[in-house]
Amino acid sequence: MSGGNPKPRIHYTKPSITELEIRYATDAAANGWGEHCYDYIRRFEALFREHLGVKHAIATSSATGALHLGMAGLGIGPGDEVILGDINWIASAAPIVHLGAKPVLVDVLPDTWCLNPAEVEAAITRRTKAILAVHLYGNLCDLDALREIGKRHGIPVIEDAAEAIGSIWHGRRAGSIGIFGAFSFHGTKTLTTGEGGIFVTNDDALYERVLTLSNHGRARGETRQFWPETIGYKYKMSNLQAAIGCAQMERAQELIAGKRRVFEYYRTALSGLPLCMNPEPSDTVNGFWMPTLVVDKDAAFDREALLAGFQAENIDGRVFFWPLSMLPMFRQHPQNRVSHSLYRRAINLPSYHDISNADQDRVIECITKLVCARQ
Ligand SMILES: *Cc1c(COP(=O)(O)O)cnc(C)c1O
Q1: Measured between alpha carbons, how far is 69 from 157 in angstroms, rounded to an integer?
Q2: Is residue 1 pLDDT above 50, yes or no?
Q3: Which residue(s) pair with 236 in the sheet?
Q4: Residue positions annotated with a catalytic role
Q5: Residues 218 and 227: beta-carbon distance below 8 Å
Q6: Where are the beta strands (DSSP E) in the chain?
Q7: pLDDT in tens, 219-254
Q8: How far apart are the CA of 67 and the centre of ligand 1, in A?
Q9: Domain extents for the chain?
Q10: Atom in ligand 1 nearest the alpha carbon of residue 135
Q11: Helices then strands (H, E): number in the chain?
């Protein structure tokens, strides 16, 4: 802190909560019990199906849970391999490990920070059971290339769309295109229920398997009480959380537009600096969950100095995800050169929906001071 009164804190994310969320949550707390204990959950699932354009949705307690259920539903288990990008949040990899399978970490593309299709194809073995396409920070994976590779090898593509609400690939919403999709409603995400997630699919058989797994192994239509037919999971969203989710879904377009406004303001202000931000290739829309800058390789940049500069100005900046292959539980793999070069040059910027232009200007001023072309 630079002495005197600290400037007001600029958080990196925070939810947008209005009277509507409060009204629905209050109603759920007062009335959402007994025969009404699933009302908001059913409504939330219906609103989400409609938003995404998918046949089936199962609300969950987290995206991690949705991924775990979906991969269990695909029969992924011990000895199997699932391919994903090296730069990722651990939540995408953990369910693979929980199922006894192996995450195979491949390099990402320098412009989208998502899976490099050529690296995916090179990593396929007899044991590969799925390709996990994570749409990082709202950026889209090349779904056409990945699905083409998947088709050729008989391997499904899963979409981790936890960060990709509002992102659209050639007219179809992220999360609706792979064999299944998973979303997160954690407090830092574009839409929130505090904690929460959802599993979505257009595949009827997979939906039925996941529905049974999600209900502690009890099949729909089973007439015996307390009669599981298999060992399942318990990753449910509560009616109280779903009530907040219903309000967020009614405001989805507004919340996504807020993220896009914040991104555009940064992009315009930072356009003269030697850096790249989240891309938006033609015929796609980026939901811009997290405005992120990656400084050019040949520019003068010290990530720690920028973070310290933010801290002095009471701004909450965050580092890019680490390559998973740097973490102690995975095999080191510095051969993933793009991943191991990206993270050191990158920073996430504060981006809650109603951040003011004046607060964004404070962030921009810090960056402008500390990112410069090498003389
Ligand atoms: C947030 C996130 C998750 C995990 O979501 P939870 O709801 O916290 O389980 C998974 N994958 C990605 C890409 C995420 O950003």
Answers
A1: 15
A2: no
A3: 60
A4: 189
A5: yes
A6: 56-60, 81-85, 102-106, 128-134, 157-160, 168-169, 172-173, 180-184, 197-201, 275-277, 284-285, 292-295, 299-300, 318-319, 346-348, 372-373
A7: 999 999 999 999 999 999 999 999 999 999 999 999
A8: 9
A9: 19-250, 252-370
A10: 13
A11: 12, 16
Give Cα 367 to chain centroid, integer Å: 25
Torsion (CA) 111, 114, 119, 125 in degrees, nearest 10: -170
Amino acid identity at 173: R
Atom index in ligand 1 nearest the CA of residue 134 equals 13
- One-letter amino acid of 196: G
Q: Is the CB of 183 under 6 A from ligand 1?
A: no
- pTM reported for the whole predicted model: 0.97
Pocket of ligand 1 contains residue 89 by CB under 6 Å: yes
- Three-state DSSP at 174 gives coil
The verdict on the CB of residue 163 being under 6 Å from ligand 1 is yes
pLDDT tens digits, 255-282: 999 999 999 999 999 999 999 999 999 9
Instruction: Round to whole Å and give the CA distance between 357 and 371.
Output: 20
Cβ of 92 below 6 Å from ligand 1:
yes
* Structural fold of domain 19-250: Aspartate Aminotransferase; domain 2 (3.40.640)
Ligand 1 atom closest to the CA of 136, numbered from 1: 13
Residue with tokens 């099949």: 219
Of the chain, the end-to-end C-alpha distance in Å amounts to: 30
- Domain 252-370: which CATH number of 2.60.120.10, 3.90.1150.10, 2.40.128.270, 3.40.50.720: 3.90.1150.10
